[in-house]
């Protein structure tokens, strides 16, 4: 045999020895498996909950914006020097409450001038009427020309018009005079003032903005496919609305009602706009605030509800592990529907009320595995001294050969 063949044969023998040695190192004694190794027949501790039946509200969720019921910018209706501001910024104001006062002296003078003109015309009118009465007296009729009678009659009409014009001027001056006291047209919250006392204001000046927050609106949009369900719920008077905080999803206002469904669907977004109305007596909602809106559009009677974590995602469908009467589990395909809060989901197919499903520990299971069913929050029993001793023995004797 040549030297090359001898070397090749030696290498093959060495490889065979190494392979058998590695297998021997990884093999465990069956006795060790009985005493200290894992027993495949030992029940797996899992958390189990029963399928419950309950009425489940059906919601549609969206992101919305809070808008004021009314927003009014207070502008003067006359010009003049601003004498005072009689509101506190950021505080509530009532309808009819005085907000500001403008210097009234110039307008008061205009009113007084119109009143004086009215009195003057009234005096002239009385004189013209007296003269006209004498001229038309039958005793003087033969001595008065017809032209003078007509002239005096027209003079009476002239002074009557003068009195009416002066009266109109008085009314106009009175209205302008009233404008010097600016009052709130509604109940609301005063914003930040736009002018300071002492400035000359005009009809283009902005004194303050009053925002009505009680009640208040929340505007939002939903996909077009939800229109039918929303309109049906509105027609039945069941379209209740809740506003949730935009961060941690807790309800901050749950007494809203659907107020308006827009009359068209946006061709750009394939959505339609809605508006809900909230009493907002505690002012928890504020104009411009972003909220999560939850609109109830229906109710599922006697829906089958399971914890969300019980439902597992399979290659073909969702499934759950169902605990059978002999404490073994089977994989059951299910069809889910709407979510119930953040923790549960409705199952429409595959389960019945009372079925027990595994909610924790699924990763250790396979079909027909034996389980130790625990209630939520319940811990598995502590190992006995014998089990600890067996486990320790298994750790000592379960491996042979040099450590790898």
Could you describe the 3D structure shown?
The chain is α+β, with helices and mostly antiparallel strands. The protein contains 6 helices and 19 strands. It has a 6-stranded antiparallel barrel. Strands 6-5-3-8 form a 4-stranded antiparallel beta sheet, with no helix packed on it. Strand 15 and strand 16 form a beta hairpin. Helix 3 (105-135) packs antiparallel against helix 4. The protein is rod-shaped. The chain starts with a helix and ends in a 7-residue tail after the last helix. The model is unreliable at 26-38 and 394-404 (pLDDT under 50).
Supply the key terms.
single chain; 404 residues; alpha+beta; 6-stranded antiparallel β-barrel; 6 helices; 29% helix; rod-shaped
| Termini Cα gap | 38 Å
- Give the helix level as a range of percent: 25-40%
Read across the widest sheet, the strand sequence of neighbours is 2-9-12-11-10-13
What is the count of helical runs? Answer: 6
Beta-strand percent range: 35-45%
Mean pLDDT: 84
Structural class: alpha+beta
| Assembly form of the protein | single chain
Overall morphology: rod-shaped
The biggest sheet, with number of strands, parallel, antiparallel or mixed sense and barrel status, is: 6 strands, antiparallel, barrel
Rg, nearest Å: 46 Å
Low-confidence stretches: 26-38, 394-404
Order of helices and strands: HHEEEEEHHEEEEHEEEEEEEEEEH
Strand segment count:
19
């Amino acid at each position: 045999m040549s030297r090359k063949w001898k070397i090749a044969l030696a290498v093959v023998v060495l490889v065979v020895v190494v392979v058998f040695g590695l297998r021997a190192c990884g093999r465990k004694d069956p006795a060790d498996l009985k005493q200290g190794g894992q027993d495949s027949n030992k029940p797996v501790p899992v958390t189990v909950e029963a399928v419950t039946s309950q009425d489940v509200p059906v919601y549609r969720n969206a992101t919305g914006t809070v808008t004021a019921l009314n927003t009014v910018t207070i502008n003067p209706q006359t010009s003049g020097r601003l004498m005072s501001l009689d509101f506190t910024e950021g505080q509530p104001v009532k309808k009819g409450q005085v907000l500001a006062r403008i210097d009234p002296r110039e307008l008061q003078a205009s009113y007084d001038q119109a009143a004086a003109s009215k009195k003057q015309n009234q005096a002239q009118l009385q004189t013209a009427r007296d003269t006209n009465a004498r001229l038309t007296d039958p005793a003087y009729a033969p001595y008065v020309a017809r032209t003078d009678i007509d002239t005096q009659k027209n003079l009476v009409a002239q002074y009557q018009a003068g009195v009416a014009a002066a009266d109109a001027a008085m009314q106009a001056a009175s209205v302008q005079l009233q404008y010097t006291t600016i009052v709130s047209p509604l109940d609301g919250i005063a914003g930040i003032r736009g002018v300071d006392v002492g400035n000359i204001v005009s009809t283009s000046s902005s004194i303050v903005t009053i925002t009505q927050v009680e009640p208040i609106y929340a505007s939002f949009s939903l996909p077009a496919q939800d229109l039918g369900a929303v309109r049906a719920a509105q027609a039945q008077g069941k379209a209740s609305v809740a506003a949730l905080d935009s961060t941690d999803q807790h309800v901050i206002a749950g007494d809203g009602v659907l107020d308006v469904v827009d009359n068209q669907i946006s061709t750009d977004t394939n959505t339609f706009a809605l508006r809900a109305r909230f009493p907002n007596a505690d002012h928890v909602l504020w104009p411009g605030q972003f909220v999560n809106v939850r609109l109830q559009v229906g109710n599922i009677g006697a829906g089958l509800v399971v914890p969300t974590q019980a439902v597992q995602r399979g290659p073909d469908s969702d499934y759950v592990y169902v605990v059978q009467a002999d404490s073994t589990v089977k994989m059951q395909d299910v069809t889910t529907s709407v979510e119930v809060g953040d923790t549960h989901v409705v199952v429409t197919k595959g389960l019945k009320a009372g079925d027990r499903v595994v909610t924790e520990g699924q990763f250790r299971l396979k079909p027909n595995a034996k389980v130790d069913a625990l209630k939520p929050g319940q811990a598995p029993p502590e190992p006995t001294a014998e089990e600890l001793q067996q486990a320790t023995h298994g750790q000592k004797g379960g491996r042979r050969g040099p450590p790898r």
